[in-house]
Each structure stands twice: as C-alpha cells, then as structure tokens.
Amino acid sequence: MRKGYKIILGLIALCASVTLLSTNVWAAKKKKIKSVNIKISGKVEADTKPGNENIEVTTTGETYSVEDFSFENTTFAWSADDVPELKIHLVSDEDHYFEVYQGSQIKINGGTFKKADRQDGATSLYVTVLLPTPATQMDVIQKATFSEDGNAVWNSVEGAGNYEVKFMRNETAVGGLQNTVLNTINYRKLMTKEGSYWFKVRPISKVNPDFAGEWVDSNRVYISRSEAEAIDAENVARDSAGNWEQLDGGKWKFKTADGVYANNEWRRINKKWYYFLPDTYMAAGWQHINNNWYYLDPATGAMLANSTTPDGYFVGLTGEWIP
C-alpha cells in the first residue's frame, strides 16, 4: 500500500514538472505585447437602438487584432446623456501574448480607458472603454488643407462649437495654440523662415468644451529661404504702415494705414513686435496670449526675445516664456 502511495505521489510530481516545463517553454517561445493602440471611429447617436450604432474599432498593432466588440450597458435606446460602455476583445497572434493590463499601457483614440482583463492564457485582452455621451459626440474632420499663400482650411464638423489649431514649421509649433469658431485661418505672416509648414486641427464639443475630437494633420508646404524673406519684408511693410498716438495717461495706440486702430493682434513695427489689446491700447509687462506668456517692455511695449526678463524668467526666440 505504501509503495502504491509513493508511486501515485511520484506521478503527481512528474505531471507538475511536465506542466511547469511546458509553461516555461511556452513563455520562452512567445514574446510579450507591452502596449496596445486602439482607435474608435464613428459615434453613438441619441435615440439609436442597440445594434444600430455606427462604431468601428481598429488597431495599428501587427502582433494583435480586434476579434470583436460589444456594448456592456445597452438600453432600449441611447439617450443624449448616456455614457456608452464598449468592451473590446483583442487577440494576439500565435507568437505573442499580452503583458498589458494597465491604462498607461493602452492608448485609446476616441474613448476613455476604464479597465482591462487578460484571459485565455494572456492571448486575449478585454478592454472596456467609455465613449463620449451622444450629446457631446462629433463627426471627425475629414480633410485639412494648407496652401502656399498660408490659408489653412478644414471641413466644418457637426456638433463642434469651435476648433483648436496648431501651426507647425517642420515639427515645431509656431505662434501658439489658436482657437476659432471658423474653419479657416491665414498663417502667411508667420511663414518667415525656411521650412516645411503645415497645421493640425481638432474640434471642440459645443455641448461639453472639455471634450475634444482627434487631431487631424494637413498636407505640408515647403517655403524656401528667399520666399520666407519676401514674406518677412511684406510683414514689416504692412505692419509698420501707420502712426503712433499717445493718449492722456501716457497710453499708446497705433493707427494703421487703413485708419483702423490695431487691436487684439501682434504688430511688427520697425522690426520690433508689439501686442495691442482688444481695447486698442498697446500692451505692456507680462501678457498671456494664445496660451503662452510674453514679456513686453513696460516703457516701450516691445516684446523681449531670447533673453532673461527683469524678474528672472527666460523667454525664447519667439518671445514665449520657457519654464
């Protein structure tokens, strides 16, 4: 009896060793997937019944793919304030397995991460995503076009209250973040250096300004050194045309050649930059403009650039404070 008992224990130990060995061999052969990228396109509209949602889920991963997806909190019909909860099933290829389980490892475009769960020996990853409410959802900007004369144009988006736009030279932002309710901006006066110019734009929800759509990039336009110098000369000639006027109290205004006071804009006058407030007065001291801080000489109003301000802060070549 004791001998038989020992044999049974030996067989159990052998099976455990084989299982452990198989697991180690499996892990050694397969490679880890340490991050995933998910893109959710389309939207859930109010009054839509479950099963009729216009949603597409894709991924850029080469070692995993989207198996299927479904809504977790379906109702008779989606209301404007519902928060759709989408469960996405990803599967790895035969040579990989998921090590992903935290939100920081999962990049989601079009929704917000809620949770993730690995199953089937880590070859399946279930990601639960919260979509925007139907009231805040917007269409995607389909086309953004940039032309040699500096015109940035994109198609209007239903549900957008305004747009955020970044103008770029090569891979560097120029002029700060712009907000506009229109679907076009002219950036010609900022194209004063040689380089490849383009812009990126995204819609901001009319209902919930905290919700932004995805960034869309435009085509690129190359500006040579001679073309940039010509634009710079245009800027100087245009912006300098006019007259300074000093009012009671020592404040200054600048009347342009068209007879209009400069307002809510930058002006390059005699090769120095000045900013004029919405009330048409010249700005001075620290100013917060288009999400950037600038220092304007309190005595002259001229923008300080590539130097340290009197109170010890450094501003870059284009005047923005560099933290």
UniProtKB/TrEMBL annotation:
Signal peptide: 1-27
Gene3D superfamilies reported for this sequence: Cholin Binding
One Pfam family hit: Choline_bind_3
Per-repeat ranges for Cell wall-binding: 263-282, 283-302
UniProt xrefs under SUPFAM superfamilies: Cell wall binding repeat
InterPro entries: Cell_wall/Cho-bd_repeat
Top-level lineage group: Bacteria
Keywords: Repeat, Signal
Name this polypeptide is given: Cell wall-binding repeat protein
Lineage, uppermost ranks: Bacteria, Bacillati, Bacillota, Clostridia, Lachnospirales
